[in-house]
Amino acid sequence: MGERLRKTFACHRIDANNSINLSPSFTTFLLPAQLPNWPDGQGFATGTINLGELQVAEITRFEFVWGSHLSHDKRKGISFYKPLGIPEGFFCLGHYCQPNGKPLNGYVLVAKDSLSHSRVSTDSEAISSAALAMPVDYTIVWNSDDGMGIHDQPGYFWLPKPPLGYKALGFVVTNQPGKPDLDEVRCVREDLIDDCETCGLLLDMVSKFRKIPFKVFETRPCDRGMLGKGVSVGTFFCSSLWTTISEMPVVCLKNKDSKWKYGMPNLDQIHMLIHHYGPTILFHPREVYFPSSVSWFFKNGALLFKAGQQRNGEAINADGSNLPGGGTNDGEFWIDFPEDDDLRKIFKHGNLESAEVYVHVKPALGGTFTDIAMWVFSPFNGPATLKIGPTNIAMRKTGEHVGDWEHFTLRISNFTGELHSMYFSQHSGGAWVSACDLEFVEGNRAIVYSSKSGHASFPHPGSYLQGSSSFGIGVRNDCGKSNFCLDCSTQYQIVAAEYLGADVTEPQWLQFMREWGPKIVYDSRKELDKIVKRLPRVVRCSIANFVGKFPAELSREEGPTGPKEKDNWLGDERW
Predict the structure, then answer these.
(1) Distance CA 165, CA 130 (A)
(2) To the nearest whole number, what is the mean pLDDT of the chain?
(3) Minimal CA–CA distance to 386: which of 222, 228, 550, 240?
């Protein structure tokens, strides 16, 4: 379960004024095992991707420039880097940064003009318009001498000023006061770019004397998801002036290639990716509500019900071929267990031996990445366990429902075929986790920890609280190691890959857009109120307010809709 880490040692140099500029030692993350030789294909894992008039390559080697930690807590700072090893003919679009305390595990894109382009203006006058152009100047955004009290090594942040008709895609960081060379970066013609937005806040500093804030953010394309053509450059956004997204002076790229899915893996390559990266799901040692295959669920007596005919459920074919397809979740149909108590007990416990993951493969970030979403079906979602301060309360029904769909997603670089990150779905939300923060069980196969009873996915064992961690109030998600496991590298079925057309046939049950369980409303609030009343009076009011904000699913039993009804089927994951 170890990681291969490439070590780069600290270096220093003496300036003319005899001050020492010290760059930190750092490691570059490498996956635990070597990548395989991918099956033959077209554009996947060839090192470059055509975006139309731009060809882009991914750079993961960097040279340290400046770090905010030099006079601060190293664990809380971030460091800034310029890309190294840029291929001949390609140009930098901006610098890279990431938090300290973890190995380098990011990228920036570099680009070159893939053809000499001529476009026609509105007055039919042909004008030459290259895809890339040098900036005409730089604007200083912030420097570390601006009252911050950072004296070890100065840092200067520059925004390229693009020529008319072009846009900047990133910032340049230097440790010298003079402006960078104009040749340091390139700007991109404005019809080849797309809007981006800030996401994670990486640094938030305020000058000691003039109270000027300086913030650094990650960025992402606004147009994301399976059909989104926005391409993340991997650069950052920083500012001491701009406060709204509409004022952001940097953008992302757009894939304008008519064959923009050319860099995606073919079917043989998908199978190899799943065999190589397919995670192992570990279930809690006290888990009793296991997943099963969809066909096991149908073959063992699951019934289809129709509104107005609640007493006459229809047996479902093993392949789901008699399920109504298409439409919307209109409440006309739903799936439920049979009435027999013994059969219901069997259903609730699932059947781990038959279980498999259902794979949806789709483009991400304009076709520069592949998302491999792996869906897991469980016949039953168990009751919740509430944590209120030091007290844990196992609920009788709260949180239960028939049918449970959960998923996690592998994000693969289409430049190299390397695993970049994983998304862990956790009830109504989730989180992306970088490959360097994953736990690997064998080769490059990560571990997914499934929470007890609720089946949310997490990257590490432990107890995760859905609620207010500061007050210790919420729903417990307990994860741990056990011998109960599901090997996703072998136990899988590819159910959808729209970009491959007829190469993948979607099963009929995937077209069932209604709920996989009945809707039963019950008064769990009374049970919660009884719990609150037993607490000390001094904390009762505050805790009652938090309990009132618990998810709505804790007061009713309602089966979920299937994977294709989820927002992230077409869209990006929630992050």
Answers:
(1) 11
(2) 85
(3) 550
> Rg of the chain's alpha carbons, rounded to an integer?
27
Angle 139-144-145 from CA coordinates, rounded to 5°: 100
- pLDDT, tens digit, 9 for 90 and up, residues 54-88: 999 999 999 999 987 644 555 568 899 999 999 99
Residue 122's CB: how many other CB atoms inside 10 A? 5
Two structure tokens written together for 298: 């149908």
What tokens appear for 549 in the block?
A: 């904000």
Q: Which two three-digit tokens encode residue 88?
A: 């001949």
User: Which residues are CB-neighbours of 18 under 8 A, at least 6 positions away?
Assistant: none
Say if residue 24's pLDDT is above 70: no
- Going by their DSSP bridges, the two strands 385-388 and 391-394 should be labelled as antiparallel
Element (H, E) at 245: none
For residue 194, give both structure tokens: 């797309």
Residue 127 has pLDDT above 50, yes or no: no
Q: Which residues pair with 253 in a beta bridge?
A: 193, 231
User: Are the C-beta atoms of 240 and 249 separated by less than 8 Å?
Assistant: no
Task: Give me the sheet containing 187-189, strands edge to edge.
Answer: 132-133, 187-189, 166-167
Tokens 């731009």, located at residue: 54
pTM for the whole structure: 0.90
